[in-house]
Amino acid sequence: MQDGSNIYNSSSFFEPMEGDIGAQFTDFSDLPCQRPWLCLKRVKRFGQWWVVKGVNPQFEPRNKAQQLLDREFERGMTLWHPSIVRMIAQQEVPTMEGRCIIEEWVDGTSLDKFIASDPTVEVRQDIATQLVEAVRYYMSKGVTHGNLKPSNVLITHNGSRVKIIDFEPDATEAQTDFSALALLLSALQLPRKFNKVIKRCQQGKYHSAHTLHQEFTAAHKKNHLRWLMPAAMALVALAAIAATFLWGNRQKQADSKKLPQGYVVDTGKLPANFVFSTISLSDIYYLLPDSVTPGNIPDSIAVDLGLSVKWSRMNMGANHPSVNFVGSYYAWGDTTDITKWGGLDKYWPQDKPVPTKAISGTDIDFASKRWGGKWRMPTIEEFRELINRCKWQFRNAGDGAAGYVVTGPNGNCIFMPLAGWSDDGINMQNIGRYGYYWTSTPTADGRRMAHYVLLDEGKIIADQTDTFDRLMAIRPVQ
Length: 478
What we know:
Blueprint: E1 26-31, E2 38-45, E3 48-55, H1 62-76, E4 87-92, E5 97-104, E6 108-110, H2 111-116, H3 121-140, E7 153-156, E8 162-164, H4 174-187, H5 195-202, H6 209-221, H7 230-258, E9 264-265, E10 274-279, E11 282-287, E12 302-303, E13 311-312, H8 344-347, H9 366-371, H10 380-389, E14 391-395, E15 403-407, E16 413-417, E17 421-422, E18 428-429, E19 434-442, E20 449-456, E21 459-467
Antiparallel strand pairs: 1-2, 2-3, 3-5, 4-5, 6-7, 7-8, 9-11, 10-11, 12-13, 14-15, 15-16, 17-18, 19-20, 20-21
Helix pairs in contact: 3-4, 3-6, 4-5
């Protein structure tokens, strides 16, 4: 908890804690709660901190409180966005009443306290962008918040990332959220170029969060320096060209050392069956995407790291048309390469059998089907081996190629980008901030969920789970 805070903090960063890592819930501590029907506690499990929401035993009728809690969980589990607090599970917890919600814990502070710390205008604009993107996302899912206010918007200490908490179980009025968002944007004291968007939001002129997002993005791109004299601009340009020329050669050499084996830097000649991209001022080449080369991806891109399997140098679809390196996004068990956006029931109907073991090499392993040969999706055990036996070095030159250079016990290495994810197969989310990678291993409880691995700057987290319809990256193995 932060000093005197009347909200709980949850975290987008799962930091392993000192001591034993066990499945039991321990270290219970009470958290203040503004909802009379709820009881909040912070607990430790698997060496990490979590928030547990349960029924307040003093609230009557308790069955009404449990119904509200169940509805909150049902809505929360449909939301999967880095700027929205993540619900992990619903289960009974010792010393707590009824079926409890398990949520991530955020190491952060409320928006009003964050603003009081006097962040820079650039940081405030970034916070506003994250807010607008989050509202666009959850409204696209047919969800409204119902209580969007500074105490329900947390900002993480590490990286100033937005986390929206406490969605009202029965909220339905979108205009309430638009009005509340206008107040949050006003409190951030943004530059004047955003005034029109904020005013339209206050006046109830928006009937679509998508339109709001478009106009906010357009305002963000406006350049208010057009009054500068052309001569001054020319001088700045000349200075930049000179600086770039001197810096470029040094940066090329630096980047060539940062990038792992498998990428060809500054070759001067385009190799056959390769495509071209530019990262910093270095020329990077990589294999054609799987959508162009649908089968028989050569064994030569398999890297022996000294582990039980060889890992590909690239994600599937590694030449995404709008962002280099990251690849494409796939639902779990998809063999069609056609996005089935529209919810889990549409993608994987409830009467469709759920695999009980890893699908590596089966007829629903897209890596095996698309790439051919010995290629397949990695299991959760193989990802754990990659995490535990390799050295992971974070790389971010500010060029969109943020990720990890992963060096195996034998000294060979691969590059794992923070590839982001997609909620609809079209729009890409959080590239360069987070990396989401499917494994081939389903959960053992028979639900339509599978394990994935989350990459973040300074954090590599295995044993995450999500529903089959989520769209994530795939890194094949042999």
